[in-house]
């Protein structure tokens, strides 16, 4: 049975239009994106197969091209479309953070950093530079590789913050291992950066660790 044979209220697209996107399951949302299934499998069936294969919607969105395209029913065109959707979501969140006080949108900050960093296979250090009203001016990847106090240079972070005339920064790095817990080196580095930036009257509002779909806040942990 195809989706067209389902009762109207059960069809994902009609359900979204009448009840809103929040009423749909991950598989139903993904089915709308896929549009069609494969022989003997509806778009919802295919969506469920993909979610089982990757384990979660976030893991599916973070998959590389080869990994994504090896499954029947999807290919390079669908991969390109999915990447476009993810990038649009990332840019929409970036616009929201640029237009308003980032401290008033903690979920938007987390979602933006998750979309930006969760799929990276290597460790990176990112700084979000904010103006006096806590609006995001720019976000930059400053360092890449194993992050320690000796590989992340406070002087360079301060230099970039002064370049943007920032009043505050939000720091972030990822743990490709998937474990969000901060190491002793993470805590030491955070304090060194906080002290260096304080010398030029720039506040560190938070330091986030992105690990898969999880995001840990140093501020919430009392580590700032």
Write out key terms for the chains shown:
five-stranded mixed sheet; 5 strands; alpha+beta
Overview of this structure, please?
- By secondary structure, the chain is of the alpha+beta class.
- It has helices spanning 12-19, 26-34, 43-54, 57-62, 65-69, 76-99, 106-117, 154-163, 184-198, 218-221, and strands at 124-130, 136-144, 168-174, 203-211, 214-217.
- Strands 2-1-3-4-5 form a 5-stranded mixed sheet, with helices on both faces.
- α9 links the parallel β3 and β4 (203-211).
- α6 (76-99) packs antiparallel against α7 (106-117).
- It is elongated and about 65 Å long.
Q: Into which percent range does the helicity of residues fall?
A: 40-55%
What is the C-alpha radius of gyration, as a whole number of Å? 21 Å
What strand order characterises the main sheet?
Answer: 2-1-3-4-5
Q: How many β strands by DSSP?
A: 5
Structural shape: elongated
* Low-confidence spans: none
The secondary-structure element order is HHHHHHHEEHEHEEH
Q: In angstroms, what separates the terminal alpha carbons?
A: 56 Å
Strand content bin: 15-25%
Q: In a few lines, what is going on in this structure?
A:
With about 220 residues, this protein is an alpha+beta fold.
Question: Helices and strands in order, then pairings?
Answer:
Blueprint: H1 12-19, H2 26-34, H3 43-54, H4 57-62, H5 65-69, H6 76-99, H7 106-117, E1 124-130, E2 136-144, H8 154-163, E3 168-174, H9 184-198, E4 203-211, E5 214-217, H10 218-221
Parallel strand pairs: 3-4
Antiparallel strand pairs: 1-2, 1-3, 4-5
Helix pairs in contact: 2-3, 6-7, 8-9
